[in-house]
């Protein structure tokens, strides 16, 4: 008699196990930066919180450093449902047809993080995220990275110093125009290929927040950095809409909660991470760091602000006005 009871119990356990395994939802979260960056750390934080708050019903698998997809492919993978979650830079939504996001790329549009948060935490930010719905994407949050610095193998002090160089940029028409306004030649290159492009001389320089610059080891192949803080780079955390809408409402709410906590964490660490990265670059002794004088920065601003007008028909006058108004 004992044997069948044991057998029944074992079968029951197997069935429970199988249904538990079935009940677990996997979210593949792909991104292109190193783990040790604001986005990398926030993605890990979200994964942990999501698992905790859903009591194991959701497992978030984070794939960092373009391990799964590079810039362009990850957007396609999200729309196809091969991954469920991404946090692309706001500069990478143009190819998707949502050009309004390029407002974030306009040089000198935000004086500081407070200005930026007036947009990302307010109705303007929410309105922009809504624009993704027609592309089968739901926007969940904005995560900070930081203000960009320029780098090259020659000192970049005056506006004239920027002229004639080739710069790697993200896939944004506004950034293309920014480089042209400086007399440079823009080249769109995937983030994961940037180090090599700099190393082999395909391009001469680039722009990025210090955390990306340092964790991609760009300081090994760029002799000069100029602390221009001329533009912002941050993220929209996005999910495949069909997948998201198909989740049970309680699970979705738990994930929203995990996302709120991860967003607070991301935005709290972003500045520090960038400051620490700049310190590390300094310590490496490989790159000279230059802080432009007030006059030099003003000259850079004068050269770059015309980009706002030039790109207004692409981004939309209303969107630019909304941002001006929000930032006061
Ligand atoms: C870049 O391509 O430079 C950035 O968008 C990378 C990132 O995700 O921060």
TrEMBL record:
State the Pfam families in the record.
DctP
Keywords linked to the UniProt accession: Signal, Transport
The record, for CDD domains, names: PBP2_TRAP_SBP_like_1
Per its UniProt record, what InterPro entries does this chain match? DctP_fam (IPR018389), TRAP_DctP (IPR004682), TRAP_DctP_sf (IPR038404)
Instruction: Give the highest taxon in the source lineage.
Output: Bacteria
Q: Name one GO cellular component term.
A: outer membrane-bounded periplasmic space
Q: Name a biological process GO annotation.
A: C4-dicarboxylate transport
Question: Signal peptide span per the entry?
Answer: 1-23
PANTHER family for this protein: C4-DICARBOXYLATE-BINDING PROTEIN DCTB, PTHR33376
Q: Which family does it belong to?
A: Belongs to the bacterial solute-binding protein 7 family.
Its protein name is: C4-dicarboxylate-binding protein DctP
């Amino acid at each position: 008699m004992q044997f069948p009871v044991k057998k029944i119990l074992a079968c029951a356990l197997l069935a429970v196990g199988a249904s538990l395994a079935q009940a677990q939802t996997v979210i593949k979260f792909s991104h292109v930066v190193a783990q040790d960056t604001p986005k990398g750390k926030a993605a890990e934080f979200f994964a942990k919180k999501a698992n905790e708050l859903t009591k194991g019903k959701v497992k978030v698998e984070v794939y960092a450093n373009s391990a799964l997809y590079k810039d362009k492919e990850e957007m396609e993978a999200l729309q196809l449902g091969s991954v469920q979650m991404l946090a692309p830079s706001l500069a990478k939504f143009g190819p998707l047809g949502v050009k309004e996001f390029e407002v974030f790329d306009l040089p000198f549009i935000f004086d500081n993080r407070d200005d930026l948060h007036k947009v990302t935490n307010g109705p303007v930010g929410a309105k922009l995220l809504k624009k993704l719905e027609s592309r089968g994407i739901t926007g969940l949050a904005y995560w900070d990275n930081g203000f960009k610095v320029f780098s090259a193998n020659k000192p970049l002090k005056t506006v004239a110093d920027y002229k004639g160089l080739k710069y790697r940029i993200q896939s944004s028409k506004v950034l293309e125009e920014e480089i042209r306004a400086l007399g440079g030649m823009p080249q769109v290159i995937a983030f994961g290929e940037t180090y090599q492009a700099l190393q082999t001389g395909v391009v001469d320089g680039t722009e990025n927040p210090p955390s990306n610059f340092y964790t991609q080891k760009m300081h090994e192949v760029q002799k000069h950095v100029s602390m221009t803080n001329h533009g912002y780079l941050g993220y929209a955390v996005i999910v495949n809409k069909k997948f998201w809408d198909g989740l049970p409402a309680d699970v979705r709410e738990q994930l929203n909660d995990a996302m709120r906590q991860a967003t607070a964490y991301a935005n709290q660490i972003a500045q520090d991470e960038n400051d620490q990265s700049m310190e590390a670059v300094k310590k490496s002794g490989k790159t000279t760091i230059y802080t432009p004088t007030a006059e030099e920065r003003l000259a850079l601003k004068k050269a770059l602000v015309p980009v706002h007008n030039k790109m207004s028909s692409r981004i939309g006058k209303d969107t630019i006005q909304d941002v001006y108004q929000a930032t006061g």
